[in-house]
Amino acid sequence: MGFFSFLGDAGKKLLGKGDDAEAIKNEIESSFDALPVQGLVVEVNGDTVALGGVANDQATKEKAILIAGNVEGISQVNADQLVTLQQISDENVREEETFEPVFYTIKKGDTLWGIAQDFYKDGSKYPLIVEANIEVIKDPDLIYPGQAIRIPELVV
After folding, report:
1. Which are the contacts of 67, defined by CB distance < 8 A and separation ≥ 6?
2. For labelling, which of 21, 32, 70, 123 has a CA lying 20 to 30 Å from the CA of 64?
3. pTM of the model
4. C-alpha dist (Å) from residue 17 to 58, 85, 120
5. Which domains, and CATH codes, for the chain?
6. What phi, psi does 131 have (nearest 5°)?
7. Secondary structure (3-state) at 41
8. What is the DSSP string of 68-94?
9. Strand order in 3-5's β-sheet?
10. Residue (of 71, 63, 57) closest to 133 by Cα position
């Protein structure tokens, strides 16, 4: 899990108002009820954000990547230094065994129902997408082109 690409011309307007790294760090931390990443480090270099620290779990790691990537002016997120507690505690976890997240960039005309239909073959499963992206999707009726979301693995 290294670099993730995003549309740089879409997202929340946080940059250029002072310390960009601090603004993105505050956005990540304030989007969760509890501190999501221990020792969170955010570095901004041009249109790239590098994240470091220890996330509570894989879902938190993916959400932190999305929050950073859904900032206008950011087109790449480097998560090489962002690990999970499980990765630290389980020395036997091999790189190929970890679930690779599926990110989707919303296009004009997309609906969450349609996205769920495409990925799960069942549009009524769109609440799973909303729940997995609650820090990014504040209102299921307000998604916008260029917004990146994660598509959770469907557990049957």
Report:
1. 24, 27, 28, 31, 135, 136
2. 123
3. 0.77
4. 31, 33, 40
5. 3-97 (3.30.300), 102-151 (3.10.350.10)
6. -60, -40
7. strand
8. HHTBTT--EEEEEEEEEHHHHH-TT--
9. 3-5, 76-84, 48-55, 37-45
10. 63
What does each C-alpha distance from 149 to 9, 60, 67, 120 come to in angstroms?
Answer: 16, 13, 9, 15
Using alpha carbons, select from 4, 15, 12, 43 the residue that is nearest to residue 147. 12
Tokens 């779990």 locate to 57
C-alpha torsion angle, residues 57, 12, 41, 34 (rounded to 10) = -40
CA-based torsion, 67, 68, 73, 75: positive or negative: negative
- List pLDDT tens digits, range 13-53: 989 888 999 999 999 998 888 888 999 999 999 999 999 99
Main-chain phi, psi angles of 155, to 5 degrees = -95, 120
